[in-house]
């Protein structure tokens, strides 16, 4: 999974792939 607190939006690509799909 993704740690939304510490590394959600380090980059826009990471943000859309991880923040919007945190189960990944």
From TrEMBL:
GO BP annotations, alphabetical order: positive regulation of SREBP signaling pathway
Pfam families for this protein: SPRING1
Highest taxon in the source lineage: Eukaryota
Protein name: Uncharacterized protein
């Amino acid at each position: 999974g993704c740690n939304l607190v510490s590394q959600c939006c380090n980059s826009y690509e990471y943000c859309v792939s991880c923040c919007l799909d945190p189960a990944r």
